[in-house]
Specification:
The complex is a heterodimer of chains A (about 160) and B (about 500).
Chain A lengths: L4 E6 L9 H10 L6 E6 L6 H4 L5 E8 L6 E6 L14 H12 L5 E7 L11 H19 L16
Parallel strand pairs in A: 1-2, 1-3, 3-5
Antiparallel strand pairs in A: 4-5
Chain B lengths: L14 E6 L8 E7 L5 E8 L5 H4 L8 H4 L8 H15 L6 H33 L10 H7 L1 H22 L8 E2 L2 E2 L5 H31 L1 H6 L6 E6 L11 E5 L5 E6 L8 E4 L8 E4 L3 H4 L2 E2 L2 H7 L6 H12 L11 H21 L18 E8 L2 E9 L5 E7 L1 H4 L1 H15 L7 H13 L4 H4 L8 E6 L5 E7 L5 E2 L1
Parallel strand pairs in B: 6-11
Antiparallel strand pairs in B: 1-2, 1-15, 2-3, 4-5, 6-7, 7-8, 9-10, 12-13, 13-14, 15-16, 16-17
Helix pairs in contact in B: 4-6, 4-12, 5-6, 6-7, 7-12, 11-12, 14-15
Classes of the chains: A alpha/beta (about 160), B alpha+beta (about 500).
Chain lengths: ~160, ~500
């Protein structure tokens, strides 16, 4: 049976704060949340559109240098951007691919957690560690909420 | 194989056209075209502008961790690094793989190449091939393909997904898999997992055959154009099986010159540095490998699908072998040196992967329990495989405390470094002239680079995507023209 909520966190665990998404997912795994599937990858690719099939809601989690700290939560809509021409797609582009291939995409949000340092081999920065804790608290709230997530949207939303 | 433009006598007197970054390749690349006083292309360079840090990152780590750690080098082909590192560690622990371990790794590798080739062809290359290099960039992407050819787009996604499933079931997880370990593998395939993969393999083979049919049809509709685009002749290098067959996972090194004559054959890759040397050039952080016996000027070569299909004596699966023959015999062999023939041969290889997966899934060794072996310990290990983009070399030294003290990786994109420069130069000679910079002309250069499917985040450590920027700079450093392609695909000044 397909879990109604998909949380998809992406990033490279060996690139400093790029590990924010995968680390958040690790913390969520310990909670063993019912009705939630947790998936991770280094970066988004077109086949990840298939992972969205049959979901009621989707939450992408990514590290971001451009969002306001500690994080931003925004509603995502399909968008045809230039990440289609790359090996790594944006989450909005994945939604666009889903829409082109399979029809209307499920309601989807992006949690962008602020990071500062992305060098190979770096540990998580102190600031990112703090942001991670706050983002984890928010995701727990989201998973427990039976209401629309729109009420949790943070005001500042920028591209990651 | 001449370099009169790359080694212009007085480059200080040339104007420069700078194109950065190159779209639809990974990482941050930059193309510089040096113009002479008559605005003719005189020198071409494909730059890498960032350092590679992975070889330092790995130092001091226990060798047992390396097959897992190297997957973080590249989000595009982590399995290739996983397997190359595992083969190097096999040498360090003196292991000869059991039949089950060997076949499980081969299955994983077929899955990796299948999904990578599917991504490249359907999502990066097919927009150019189906719509034309000069078509509107707003539709020349996978969304445009999905709108105009929805079934092709769906097949591309499904092929890619199937390859990922093969990886998941052999490596244990979707990513960060631990399937291959020094001396073997840590899991076999269950009957249920095997049957899960068998269920769809006929369809995967049919779609792969369809992809070969598509690229053959597209290529052969305009043979002179596709053969001539960015054309140059070169040597090729790849692994081959002892009987000369195509083999992605293991074999000896074979290099053939531009006339198809052997430079070396069935070489033991554990001493690769006796035959391949890496040259450093001041304008690029990426090295320039060359075959020692041919020297710096003549010793560069191509790797990847075109090299492998040209170099092998046969492909050991029937459908792909039939397609190899069609390719090599097409128009008297005219496509065998063509830059755009990388796409054709890439699809022949994808078909071979699908057939190879089917063959392995009927082999009960995949279900076996004899998964680990070891032997006499060594302090040095070399692992070489054929990754999707070409020959991948991992070379490690450890100390008595079993820590990595030195690592050298030569990735496929680095092997193809000089060849990509040559492709850029040829396309520039064909299509660019002085100040006549247009979106279509610039994309011709990108199409040539994309044929190699370079992964620059692997060859360097670039992160992120940027809009395309083009500058025309004269010999005095003055910018005389500028073009920026923004995130929506539109061009502006």
């Amino acid at each position: 049976m397909i879990a109604p909520l998909l949380i998809f966190a992406y990033g490279n665990p060996s690139r400093g704060d790029d590990a924010l998404g995968p680390m958040l997912l690790e913390q969520l795994e310990a909670l063993n949340l019912p009705g939630v599937e947790l998936l991770t990858d280094f970066q988004l690719q077109v086949e990840h559109a298939i992972d969205l099939k049959g979901r009621e809601q989707v939450l992408f989690v990514d590290a971001s240098v451009s969002c306001l700290p500690p994080f931003t939560l925004s509603r995502l809509y399909p968008e045809k951007d230039r990440s289609f021409t790359s090996h790594a797609m944006s989450p909005a582009a994945v939604l666009q691919a889903y829409q082109e291939l399979y029809g209307e995409a499920p309601p989807t949000w992006l949690l962008a957690v602020h990071g500062e340092s992305f060098e190979l081999g770096d540990p998580l920065s102190a600031a990112a560690q703090n942001n991670l804790g706050q983002a984890f608290a928010l995701v727990q709230t989201l998973c427990a909420s039976h209401q629309a997530w729109d009420q949790f949207i943070m005001p500042a939303t920028q591209n990651t | 194989m001449t370099f009169e433009l790359e080694t212009a006598d007085h480059p200080e007197n040339l104007k420069r056209v700078v194109i950065e970054p190159v779209t639809r390749v990974e990482g941050h690349g930059k193309v510089t075209l040096l113009l002479d006083e008559d605005n003719r292309i005189h020198q071409a360079r494909f730059h890498i502008v960032e350092f590679r840090g992975f070889e330092k990152f790995i130092q001091g780590r226990p060798y047992t961790e390396v097959p897992v750690l190297v997957q973080r080098l590249c989000g595009i082909c982590p399995v290739s690094h996983h397997l190359a590192a595992s083969k190097a560690m096999d040498m360090i622990i003196g292991a000869t793989l059991t039949p089950s371990a060997d076949k499980l790794r081969r299955l994983m590798h077929f899955g990796q190449i299948l999904q990578s080739h599917a991504l490249h062809f359907f999502y990066l290359a097919s927009p150019d091939l189906l719509f034309g290099f000069d078509s509107d960039p707003a539709t020349r992407n996978i969304v445009g393909v999905a709108a105009a050819y929805p079934e092709i787009a769906r097949q591309g996604v499904a092929l890619r997904k199937y390859g990922q499933e093969v990886i998941r079931l052999t490596a244990g997880k979707r990513i960060h898999g631990t399937g291959a370990i020094p001396g073997g593998v840590n899991k076999n395939l269950s009957v249920a997992e095997r049957d899960f993969l068998l269920k769809d393999i006929e369809q995967i083979i049919a779609w792969s055959q369809g992809a070969v049919d598509l690229i053959r049809k597209v290529y052969c509709e305009r043979p002179e154009f596709h053969n001539g685009f960015g054309y140059f002749r070169s040597s090729f290098m790849s692994l081959v099986r002892p009987d000369g067959a195509l083999d992605f996972y293991h074999g000896g090194l074979r290099a053939r010159d531009e006339h198809g004559q052997d430079i070396f054959d069935h070489l033991d890759y554990s001493n690769y540095w006796d035959y391949v040397h890496e040259e450093v050039k001041p304008w690029s952080y990426m090295k320039f490998p060359f075959i020692r016996s041919r020297g710096r000027e003549e010793g560069w070569y191509r790797v990847g699908p075109l090299a492998r299909v040209n170099n092998c004596d046969f492909i050991p699966t029937p459908l792909a072998e039939a397609e190899r023959r069609v390719f090599t015999e097409f128009d008297g062999g005219s496509a065998t040196q063509a830059t755009l023939a990388f796409h054709w041969t890439r699809m022949i290889e994808m078909l071979h992967c699908a057939e190879g997966i089917q063959e392995l899934l009927h082999d009960d060794d995949l279900l076996g329990d004899d998964l680990i072996s070891k032997g006499e310990r060594a302090l040095r290990g070399v692992g070489v495989i054929e990754a999707p983009r070409g020959t991948l070399i991992h070379h490690y030294r450890i100390n008595e405390d079993e820590q990595i003290v030195r690592a050298n990786l030569i990735v496929s994109t680095t092997h193809n470094n000089q060849a990509m420069n040559e492709a850029v130069r040829q396309v520039a000679l064909q299509y660019l002239d002085g100040n006549s910079l247009t979106e279509g002309l610039l994309n011709h250069i990108e199409v040539a680079i994309r044929a190699f499917d370079p992964c620059l985040s692997c060859a360097t450590h670039a992160v992120g995507k940027m809009p395309l920027e083009v500058e025309l700079i004269d010999a005095e450093g003055k910018e005389i023209d500028r073009m920026v392609r923004n995130a929506s695909g539109a061009c502006g000044v």
